[in-house]
From TrEMBL:
Residues 239-708 form the TonB-dependent receptor-like beta-barrel domain. Gene3D superfamilies: TonB-dependent receptor, beta-barrel domain, TonB-dependent receptor, plug domain. This is TonB-dependent receptor family protein. It holds the Pfam family Plug. It comes from Flavobacterium myungsuense. Residues 74-160 form the TonB-dependent receptor plug domain.
Amino acid sequence: MKNPFIYFLLLTAFSVSAQETQVQSNDTIKNLKPVYIISKQQSPERMPETKDNVLFSGKKNEVLKLSNINGNLTNNNAREIFARIPGVTVWENEGSGLQINVGVRGLSPNRSWELNTRQNGVDISADVFGYPEAYYNPPLEAVESIQMVRGGASLQFGPQFGGMLNYVLKREKAQPFTFETQNTVGSYGLLSSFNAIGGKYKKWSYYLYNHSRSGKGWRENNRFESRNTHAFVEYRFSEKTKISAEYTNSDYEMQQPGGLTDAQFKANSRQSNRERNWFGVPWNIFSVNFDTKVNANFDVNVKAFGLLGERNSVGFTSAANFEDVINTTTNQYANRRLDSDEYKNLGVENRNIYRYTLGKAKQNLAFGARLYQSNTNRFQNAKGSTGTNFNMSPEGRYQKDLQFTTKNVALFAENQFKVTDKFSVTPGIRYEHITSTAIGRIDIAEGKDVNFDQQTRVRNKPLFGVGFEYKWKQTNVYANISQAFRPVLFSDLTPGVIVDVIDPNLKDASGYNADFGYRGIYKGFLNFDIGLFYLSYNNRVGGLTQFINNDPTQGTYLFRTNLGETLNKGIESFFDLNITKMVGIEKPYGNLDIFASMSFIDSRYVDVKVITPSKTDPNSLIETNLAGNRVENAPRYIHNFGLSWGNTNFSATVQYKMSGRIFTDANNTVTPSANGQTGILDGYEILDFSSEYKFLKHYNIRGGVNNLLNKDYATRRAGGYPGPGILPGEGRTFYISIGAKF
């Protein structure tokens, strides 16, 4: 961060010298570089009223600048990084960080599928409407900032209930050439290397990085290898017009240790009885971005983008209470199950902002259009090898061979009406046209194909919303209410997980988000945001616990169906207090910050009766009344507290997370099932420490300890991948990293 006082003195001295001294033709002139004093200032920040042709006025939003956060960026530790955004639930499948699983306001964190996940404004999930799971996320060492906009994002980014999550990658904006490297070692064989070059020369800008990481994992049978490469190039035709292209190639393989029963978890949470389960994801994202200023009042942006990806898994997928052992008759393991998806997506998105005057006030109109098509080929349940390695060669054909297509046209507009200099109203509308098609084979019975007749669903969905904002100097009151929508997913129509059973008559979900809050900066030392939220989610798809063969001794399965309406409401608050700045001693003693993000979440089903068929007798109906039940995977509270100190060279953060217990099914089953797939999960409290030391202008050493007190905990139960069963969080681990930037 620039020290404005020193910079002002330098400019003043140069200006006075230029005025009082006549420069001769043979004089030597030296340009002095400005002096920077850097110390970490705690995020989050907020988006301005308009940025990148998007209106943010009246919307709850946060911007995390990762250079200002101490945390385990190497392993993408979402628990540390998202701690400063209140209400974020994090699922921790294992410690590699290859998949970031976050949700907000009591929504499921499963691969961030209730959020519109993006990288540099481009979709990165498998299929935005049919299968919105984010199997890929960028390495956080390559990320400059993370932008999150809550439900009010549905009008400009898409109808998701959770809002929009955007990873903004680093760019070098000043020097012709820079080189950055960060190299890390850590517990259980962690090795990581991030290397990047970038620069700006005349009208050209570029940035390239490669990130490679591997480890053995905290649990048994939890190895992983990952590589992520990214290239960006930009050409500026003028100050008003530029074009850029970027490409990301990612590939990772991980050995999945599987889930545990409750008894196994209590005995030894590090154990694993699955050494033959593997998961791999090659992912490619490409885009072309065009920006131009037509005139002083009209800006245009067009993005063309695409995605080519795969999801591959092989493993022994029975419940955790079934051992994967060698058959004494054949002297071999059982054949494993193979599943594979292929994704091919293309899209074009146009965003514009038009500034005009109405009365005496300047107004902002943001509008645009989107065309999107995705094609998914899903191959499931083939007989795999009896070996232990990552072998995706099937023995025979896949039982399921399905093709899904999504076509989407969207139009959207929002207008910020400035009633006064302080008060603005921002109404908006989004129109979604979605056509989803499914066809293929769903089984092979007695050597004959059992086909899935083509099904086509067409939706025409208008969404409305309005935001309000009243500003003072550095604070503002905001409010927003926006409709949301979630189509039935491909995975809902054709069960891909091992134990779940799917209701064939699923309906699309709809509802709305509402926000009201007060946020801002007070006298430069207090950063705060406190607000209320209300989320209505109609026809929510969830899981009801049923006994296998109606026999409690045989375990349970989840019947996935529409569970009616859920209401999520609560309080979200954040504050960061710079104590040394408050008392005026930050210059000699550095910045001492204390922060807290606290959320209280009440997520419940309203009065609704769900009728489900018996698994053994379809003519026998089971009635379940969920009225008053808590929504599964929604803790009643999520609190994060932190203490951070930093000066020019050194900074350190201690962070404490508290998360309440959760039910893992809509029945609110308390007693754990024999297979570990249902039952309440206790809340947990985790302490993390991280630090950074900068020296010799260009170098740094980072280090930290995660789960400092070595607590046993779990954030989720799984019915299928990557379980099934309880998935433990990691125990105590450490990392140390050395880096440089020239």
